[in-house]
Amino acid sequence: MTQSRYTKSPETAIDILARTLYGEARGEKVRGIEAVACVIINRVEKALKRGGYWWGSDVEKVCLKPWQFSCWNVNDPNREKILQVDRQNKVFATCLRVARRAVFGALTDMTGGATHYHVDGLLPAWARYQIPCVEIGQHVFYRDIP
Q1: How many separate domains does the chain show?
Q2: Is residue 81 part of a domain?
Q3: Separation CA 10–CA 18 (nearest Å)
Q4: 97-123 per-position pLDDT tens digit
């Protein structure tokens, strides 16, 4: 298996990233799923460039950081879905393919370096005075969030 600069354990990272994508973007077309994957990879890249960052410096830590991706929150209804889904589910199979490409650096960043996003139609407090860098599918993406 090829090495990934985003994790020490590619198969674990692919699984966790795919479950995150399924929980956060399963209603999106492939491009929307890819955009969410780019946010996670951009967070890892930012951490690697700085020698660490509060959200973690590999795919697993970034995805599982508490309160960053709501699908992993203990009381989120998506959590049970992401833990039980398997490769037989067509959308999850797509998430696995996107995750594999992301973990091995074969995913082009169409978000312009975004490290944050939210669902279109909601405006979380952190986004209130920020300028989005792109909208893809049902998500609005941001970079340079303090």
Answers
A1: 1
A2: yes
A3: 12
A4: 999 999 999 999 999 999 999 999 999
